[in-house]
Write a structure and sequence with these properties.
The protein is an alpha/beta fold. Helices cover about 25% and strands about 20% of the residues. It has two domains: about 130 residues, no CATH class; about 230 residues, Rossmann fold (3-Layer(aba) Sandwich).
Length: about 375
C-alpha cells in the first residue's frame, strides 16, 4: 500500500480555524516538495491543531458516520476463600453486586466474559482450566444471563492467579477472532498461590517453611507479570486493568497495571498507586468507582471504515471528531507512530485512534467520529 506522494500545500476545503477562511491550494507546507516516507501512504500537511476538513470540500467524494467497534472485556475474578471472609457484605458479595451493576451500564453490543479463579472444574490448578472462560466473551445480549448465573455460588480455595493469567493469555492469543480492543479486569484480594509453578509446593506441616513460602510467592508474582507482559505485547494488545486489596500487595498490583499498559494516571508511582486500590472498609464503593472508570477507559477507539478497501485510495481518507461543546468538527491527523492520531487496522477495514485522540473520543459520551473520503490524507507535517 506504500505510495510516494508530493505535498504542495493543504488540499481544497481546509479551514485553518483562525478566521474561517477556506484555503484553495497555495502556501507550501513544511517538508513539502519531497516524497512522503514509505509506509505512511499519505500527503504530509502541517496540522496546526485547529485545522478542519469540511464535508462540502471540493475534493470530498463521500462521508460516513463511523461505527465504534464494540469492546471485548474479560472479567478475571478471584473467588478464593478469603473473598468470603469478614463482615457482611463480604468482598465476594460486593464484587458480585458491583459486576452486576456494571453489566447494566454496558450496552447490549459490549462483549463481556468471565473467568473465575479457582475455576469450578477439575483443571483449576492448570492453565488449561482457564483457556476457556466460565463465560466466553460475547455480546451482552447473548451473555448477560450466563454471566449472572456464573456469579452465583460461594467462594472457596486458593488463589491460582498464575494459572488464570496464563490461561487468559492463551484464550486471547489462540483462536480469539473478535475484532476490537482486548481487555481484562483482574479483581483480587490476595497474593498468587503455588499452582502452575514449577517444582513441589512448600512444606507447611508440621511447621511452615517460611523461606520457601516467600520464595514461592516471589516466583508466582513474577509468573503473573510475565503473562501480563506477553499479553500487552500481542497485536492487538491485551490491556490489563488491575483492582485489588492491600493484602495482594499494592506494589505488586501497581506494577501489574504498568506492565499491562493501564496505569491509572500518566504520573502514578509504579511502587503503589497505578492500580485501583480496594480498601476493606470501603470495598464495594471503591470497586464501583473502579469499574465505572475502567468502563470508560476500556471503550474501544477502533471504528469501521465501512468501505471497500479494494476501491478506497488510502492516501485520500481523513477522520473528523465532533464532541461536547464543539459544534465544528476537528480533524484528527493520521499518525503511523501511534502517538496522537489515527491509523489503519484490519487490512484497512477499520481505523484506530491513538494517544490523546483516543482519550478525547473515549471519555466524551457525545463523541461523533466521521470517515471522510476523497481529500488527501492529513498527517503531522
Amino acid at each position: 500500500m506504500a505510495l510516494s506522494c508530493q505535498a504542495n500545500g493543504p488540499p481544497p476545503g481546509f479551514v485553518d480555524g483562525t478566521d474561517g477562511a477556506v484555503t484553495e491550494g497555495g502556501a507550501e507546507a513544511d517538508g513539502a516538495g519531497g516524497d512522503a516516507p514509505l509506509g505512511r501512504d499519505a500527503i504530509p500537511v502541517r496540522d496546526t491543531g485547529t485545522a478542519v476538513l469540511t464535508p462540502d470540500a471540493a475534493c470530498m467524494t463521500t462521508t460516513a458516520d463511523a461505527r465504534r467497534v464494540p469492546l471485548n472485556l474479560l472479567i478475571l475474578l478471584d473467588r478464593s476463600g478469603s473473598m468470603g471472609q469478614g463482615s457482611r457484605p463480604t468482598k465476594w458479595e460486593s464484587a458480585v453486586a458491583g459486576i452486576q451493576r456494571l453489566l447494566t451500564r454496558l450496552g447490549d453490543d459490549a462483549r463481556v466474559g468471565l473467568t473465575l479463579f479457582p475455576a469450578r472444574s477439575g483443571a483449576a490448578g492448570s492453565p488449561d482450566g482457564y483457556t476457556s472462560p466460565a463465560v466466553p466473551v460475547a455480546p451482552l445480549r447473548m451473555s448477560r444471563g450466563a454471566l449472572v448465573t456464573a456469579l452465583g455460588g460461594s467462594p472457596s480455595g486458593n488463589t491460582p492467579m498464575v494459572c488464570a493469567a496464563q490461561g487468559t493469555l492463551g484464550y486471547y492469543s489462540t483462536g480469539f477472532t473478535l475484532e476490537g480492543s482486548r481487555n481484562v479486569i483482574l479483581i483480587t484480594d490476595g497474593a498468587p498461590t503455588q499452582e502452575c509453578l514449577p517444582g513441589p509446593a512448600c512444606a507447611i506441616l508440621p511447621f511452615p517453611d517460611l523461606e520457601c513460602l516467600l520464595r514461592q510467592e516471589r516466583v508466582a508474582r513474577d509468573a503473573v507479570s510475565v503473562a501480563v507482559a506477553m499479553g500487552a505485547r500481542l497485536s492487538p494488545p491485551v490491556r490489563w486493568y488491575i483492582a485489588g486489596t492491600p493484602e495482594a500487595s499494592d506494589a505488586f498490583l501497581s506494577s501489574l497495571a504498568v506492565t499491562g499498559g493501564t496505569p491509572r494516571t500518566p504520573t502514578c508511582r509504579e511502587s503503589s498507586s497505578c492500580h485501583y486500590s480496594l480498601r476493606s472498609a470501603s470495598f464495594e464503593r471503591d470497586l464501583d468507582m473502579a469499574l465505572e472508570e475502567i468502563r470508560g477507559r476500556a471503550l474501544t477507539c477502533e471504528f469501521e471504515v465501512n468501505a471497500d478497501s479494494g476501491r478506497v485510495d488510502p492516501t485520500r481518507v481523513n477522520v473528523n471528531f465532533t464532541g461536547t461543546g464543539q459544534p465544528t468538527p476537528r480533524l484528527i491527523p493520521r499518525d503511523v507512530d501511534h502517538r496522537d492520531g489515527w491509523d489503519y487496522a484490519n487490512g484497512m477495514r477499520t481505523v484506530v485512534l491513538h494517544g490523546a485522540a483516543c482519550d478525547r473520543v473515549r471519555m466524551d459520551p457525545m463523541a461523533r467520529v466521521q470517515i471522510l473520503f476523497g481529500c488527501p490524507t492529513v498527517t503531522p507535517g
